[in-house]
Design goal:
This protein has one helix at residues 2-30; strands spanning 50-55, 62-70, 75-80, 86-92, 94-99, 109-112, 116-118, 125-128, 134-142, 147-148. The chain is globular, with a radius of gyration of 23 Å. By secondary structure, it is an alpha+beta fold. A 5-stranded antiparallel β-sheet has the order 1-2-9-4-7, with no helix packed on it. Strands 6-5-8-3-10 form a 5-stranded antiparallel β-sheet, with no helix packed on it.
């Protein structure tokens, strides 16, 4: 009888500890991620585009969110991205976006701040910041890459 009571007490204690640890993990997960504008730092890249990874890691499998900043006059040559899902939101400025594997100014379409759009995988495109600085955000399922079209 004492063994059964002892087993019940130990089992109850272990179950309580598991629930407590699980609750702490849920509380930690519920904290989420917060990045205030002043906490977002951009890194320069070889293309002249500045980037800031806000969530995940674009080089690895899984969800990622990257903020990109193009200085006034910047042009990003034709390229593709391999990931199946990639969406963009223009946060400020006007992003000029065109399709094709050759730069063609006549194919650029202005996407003003507030525009949301998706990119198809492996479809060549190019972008420019003709009117001033542009900040936009890309969300996708990695791994991601920028593959030159030529």
């Amino acid at each position: 009888m004492r063994k059964n009571i002892w087993k019940a007490c130990v089992t109850s204690a272990l179950l309580s500890a598991s629930l407590f640890i699980g609750a702490e993990a849920v509380n930690a997960d519920n904290a989420g991620i917060v990045k205030l504008p002043q906490d977002i730092t951009f890194k320069d890249s070889s293309t002249g585009v500045q980037t800031s990874v806000l969530y995940g890691d674009p080089a690895k499998p899984g969800l990622y969110v990257v903020r990109l900043k193009l200085p006034a006059g910047a042009k990003v040559v034709p390229h593709t991205h391999p990931e199946e899902v990639r969406t963009l939101t223009v946060l400020s400025g006007t992003l000029y976006f065109g399709f094709g594997d050759q730069w063609d100014e006549s194919k650029l379409t202005p996407y003003p701040a507030g525009t949301f759009f998706s990119e198809l995988p492996n479809v060549a495109h190019f972008v420019a910041a003709k009117d001033g600085e542009v900040i936009f955000q890309a969300t996708g399922i990695g791994p991601s890459a920028l593959i030159p079209a030529h």
